[in-house]
Design brief:
about 950 residues, Isoleucyl-tRNA Synthetase, domain 2, Ubiquitin-like (UB roll), 6-stranded mixed beta sheet, globular
């Protein structure tokens, strides 16, 4: 690269010893970064502190700008990582210059599996490698000139931070959701209701008659954080439970590629489902991309329908259906293999007349169910929900009763039904559901049409190739004792049958959600310990705040116990459980010293990122999670922000559901309990695109170093062998990563910042091209030359007033750049700065001081180091960071005249120079009076004149 651009490598030409080169850029950037740190330039004042003593500062509007939490990887950053960080820095700098008190900082989401896996492999404590990665990343980010308030930075692994993560967990644990009040309330208020009899204890006994274990179990049915035997993704090969996002589509672990099985384990859960309606409703008030809102709506998955009880052996199976109007067409039932009722309804022998196709070739129902469960446990939820051509399942050996017609219908288990949706049981209506139809055909089950087809297939299902699905058709074949739906439309039929179900006591109208409670346990070492201990009866007790933080103890082995990867019948053994001195403790929790056993799971790595925006506000408060007045100042509700939250949150769209949904849930609980004034964590969300890079692969499909690939005649070669090229992600494993340091050394950080912002709109992905970086470097060189003499180093600006053309170019640039920076359109802002700079270059002669200073201020948010240097050279002693951003004079923004095109029969006949403010009536008169127009009309009668002032007149003759 230095061969094509020698000055970029720091070379200096004798005739221009003061030219802006990479070496000059490096010296300037390091010096100003030191200055900003020493002066605390980016320190954001808080209420109750600096603001209280400075009325002018207190009167400023605030702006809280955030990036999504980075994970400190040992591999460090490549040039794709800082895209969002540079963007928020540019925006934050602009906001400071437009009179805002700006909070902009960055911490580190530092608990996670990669550091633990490294610890398992090497024996080195994960804290050591994590802190080294944080130190390296801070150094890389500092070199980019990011204006973060460093006083507010932290990592989730800091005990002073995770003390409050543990504290929040306890607030959630000690809360329940009051459906009537639609909010969380302290669990003590629920206990008081049980004690007083205001709320009945299930089973008819009084609260005082319950044992400690029974009380704990009852409260566990209400707590927002609770332990239960939950179906989980158990990976014996890793020795831990995995979240759904850590399991691949083919049912294997993302790390290690081990088989993952469905198992039931005692796990901590968060009752996020209690907030499903509020999570949906409050989305409407958030300034988020519609695509992200849609993903959250789909993930929450609200659907209205009915709960229906199907009698079976003196009990019943409950289903949720969105189509109760099709009940008469239910010809069999399906339970999820994990459904707790499966064993109860699996008899010792097959009923007489059971078809061979239903048994799976097994001698007894128990054998069939056991074998099928093992088969289903090896599949991921994604695999089970896939539209597979062949449907699988087995008959349980029992029959339920369809409540609307009294027919006995067989009960199967099949993997296409999940416990995670509805009740884990479905009524199958094969005529009107594609999956049920395929299953019915495979197992020779009845298919009854109850929704009249609107095509020409008729109601004889034996001739059908697929199900008929419609929400706009007539109900047929649906008359039974007490209720008839025949002839009704779907909506009317739903209402009638739901009313009948409720009147009959066998069902009710209800709302269901796809959203499941959040599995909150991990069988790992490197995570926040739960502030929970268990007594001799297994009852969970919360640690008091005085015992927080509960710090991670030392352990000899960081790995959970692993097992044969294919052995699903195993149980996790966590690293913490091996430290018996830590696990078994004597504590006084208010009723005297007693022996307890600590929880040995740890929290998931999502925990610390659920609330970090709050700690940025008040990071050194050792008495509160956040001071309420400080939280209200930065995040409280305001005009256009009814739920409060961060003013701008920038990050990748890959966190559309999990992180954002979890953080919203925690915010709502803290809001309900009165700890915060903001019911939402992030008011405005912006998803940046991705910086992509070409990946080169050899004939084996292995990535080869992109920097060593040569292009010849449109083909690509590595060490003489032709390789393929495909645009994709940038990363170390793909051997195409470009480090920020390499670009900074070649051109400087300001050039890197400009290039990343100029590559295209911030919200779209764009390919990296190192060869194109030089364009932005040349822009900075031209900017430097317009102000500094390259031979002498002296400032060349003059105090003379600029000419009119320059004033117009300047104020148009100011107006455009302001609008672009406000709208996060950094690429077009840079284009306008470039246009102004080129205007000054072409104009020749010294630049007017007023124009030069305005240009430096326009550049300051984008390229802060060179702007700071030029501002000082122009004679100013205060930092450019807090200067006022230029304001355009609108008299120079509006053109004196614009060109109006006059068309006759669609052909241009004249061009007129008119005022941009000309009215349509005046423009029509001017156009019709023009000599060329009169000549072209040649007296022809005019039918219509269409005027679009000030740029178009279309005459129809």
């Amino acid at each position: 690269m230095s061969e094509t651009n020698p000055t970029a490598a720091g070379a200096s030409v004798d005739a221009a010893p003061h030219r802006y080169t990479a070496a000059v850029a490096a010296e300037i950037e390091a010096r100003w970064q030191d200055f900003w740190d020493a002066e605390g330039t980016y320190a954001a004042p808080n209420p109750k502190g600096d603001l209280a003593g400075d009325p002018e500062l207190a009167a400023r509007p605030k702006k809280f700008i955030m990036d999504m939490f980075p994970y400190p990887s040992g591999a460090g950053l490549h040039v794709g990582h800082p895209l969002g960080y540079i963007a928020t820095d540019v925006f934050a700098r602009y906001q400071r210059m437009t009179g805002h008190n700006v909070l902009h900082t960055l911490g580190f989401d530092a608990f996670g599996l990669p550091a633990e896996q490294h610890a398992v492999a090497t024996g080195e404590h994960p804290r050591v490698t994590t802190e080294a990665a944080i130190t390296n990343m801070r150094s890389q980010l500092r070199r980019l000139g990011l204006g973060h308030d460093k006083r507010r930075s932290f990592a989730t692994i800091d005990p002073d931070y995770y003390k409050w993560t543990q504290w929040i967990f306890l607030q959630i644990f000690n809360s329940w959701y009051d459906d009537e009040a639609r909010k969380a309330r302290p669990i003590a208020e629920l206990v008081a209701q049980f004690e007083s009899g205001e709320r009945a204890v299930p089973g008819g006994r009084s609260w005082n008659e319950l044992s400690a274990v029974e009380r704990a179990d009852l409260l566990g049915e209400y707590r927002l954080a609770y332990a239960s035997d939950a179906p989980v993704n158990w990976c014996p090969g890793l020795g831990t439970v995995l979240a759904n996002e850590e399991v691949t589509a083919d049912g294997r672990s993302e790390r290690g590629n081990f088989p993952v099985f469905k198992a039931k384990l005692r796990q901590w859960n968060m009752r996020i489902t209690a907030y499903a309606d509020r999570l949906l409703e409050d989305l409407e008030e958030l300034d988020w991309p519609e695509a992200i809102k849609l993903q959250q709506r789909n993930w929450i998955g609200r659907s209205e329908g009915a709960r229906v009880d199907f009698p079976i052996d003196g009990e019943h199976i409950t289903v949720f259906t969105t189509r109760p109007d099709t009940l008469f067409g239910a010809s069999y039932m399906v339970l999820a293999p994990e459904h707790p009722l499966v064993d109860r309804f699996t008899p010792a022998a097959w009923p007489e007349g059971t078809r061979d196709v239903w048994t799976g070739g097994h001698a007894t129902p128990a054998e069939a169910v056991s074998a099928y469960r093992a088969q289903a446990a090896s599949k991921s939820d994604v695999e089970r929900q896939a539209e597979a051509k062949d449907k699988t399942g087995v008959f349980t050996g029992s029959y339920a009763t369809n409540p609307v017609n009294g027919e006995k219908i067989p009960v199967f288990i099949a993997d296409y039904v999940l416990m995670g949706y509805g009740t884990g049981a479905i009524m199958a209506v094969p005529a009107h559901d594609a999956r049920d139809f395929a299953f019915a055909r495979a197992f020779e089950l009845p298919i009854t049409c109850v929704v009249e087809p609107t095509d020409d297939r008729g109601t004889d299902t034996s001739t059908w190739d697929d199900a008929f699905v419609s929400y706009d058709a007539k109900i047929v074949n649906s008359t039974g004792e007490g209720v008839s739906l025949d002839g009704l439309g779907v909506v009317e039929a739903k209402a009638r049958v739901t009313e009948w179900l409720e009147r009959s006591g066998i069902g009710e109208g209800t709302v269901n959600f796809r959203l499941r409670d959040w599995l909150f346990s991990r069988q790992r070492y490197w995570g926040e310990p739960f502030p929970i201990v268990y007594d001799e009866d297994g009852v969970a007790h919360a640690l008091p705040e005085s015992m927080l933080p509960l710090e991670l103890p030392e352990v000899e082995d960081y790995s959970p116990r692993t097992f044969d990867p294919d052995d699903a019948d195993t149980q996790p053994e966590t690293p913490l459980s091996r430290n018996e001195e830590w696990v078994d403790v004597t504590l006084d929790l208010g009723d005297g010293p007693r022996r307890y056993r600590r929880e040995t799971n740890t929290m998931p790595n999502w925990a610390g990122s659920c609330w970090y925006e709050l700690r940025y506000l008040d990071p050194h408060n050792d008495r509160q999670m956040v001071d309420p007045e400080i939280e209200r100042y930065w995040m409280g509700p305001g005009e256009g922000r009814p739920h409060g939250g961060v003013d701008l949150y920038v990050g990748g769209a890959e966190h559309a559901v999990l992180h954002l949904l979890y953080a919203r849930f925690w915010s709502k609980v803290l809001f309900d309990l009165g700890y915060v004034s903001s019911a939402e964590p992030f008011h405005k969300l912006f998803n940046q695109g991705m910086i992509q890079a070409f990946v080169y692969r050899d004939s084996r499909g292995f990535a080869v170093p992109a920097a060593e690939v040569e292009e010849r005649d449109g083909a690509f070669y590595y060490q003489g062998e032709q390789v393929s090229r495909l645009l994709g992600k940038m990363g170390k494993s793909l051997k195409n990563a470009v480090t920020p340091e390499s670009i900074c050394e070649e051109y400087g950080a300001d050039t890197l910042r400009l290039y990343e912002m100029a590559m295209g709109p911030l919200d779209v992905s764009r390919p990296w091209d190192t060869r194109a970086v030089v364009g932005q470097f040349r822009l900075l060189q031209r900017l430097w030359r317009n102000i500094v003499d390259e031979a002498t180093g002296e400032v060349t600006v003059v105090d003379a007033e600029p000419g009119e053309d320059t004033l117009r170019a300047l104020h148009k640039a100011i107006d455009g750049v302001r609008q672009d920076l406000e709208g996060l359109r950094f690429n077009t802002a840079i284009a306008k700065v470039t246009e102004l700079n080129n205007h000054l270059t072409k104009a020749g002669g010294p630049v007017s001081r007023s124009v030069a200073e305005a240009l430096v201020l326009l550049v300051a948010p984008l390229a802060p180091h060179i702007a700071e240097e030029l501002w000082r050279k122009l004679g100013h002693t205060e930092t450019v960071v807090h200067q006022d951003f230029p304001v355009a004079d609108q008299a120079y923004v509006v053109d004196e005249a614009v060109t109006c095109v006059v068309q006759i029969k669609g052909k241009v006949k004249a061009r007129l120079e008119v005022s941009p403010a000309i009215s349509e009536e005046e423009l029509e008169k001017v156009a019709l009076a023009d000599e060329k127009v009169v000549e072209a009309l040649a007296g022809a009668p005019i039918r219509k004149v269409i005027v679009r002032a000030p740029k178009l007149v279309n005459i129809v003759v």
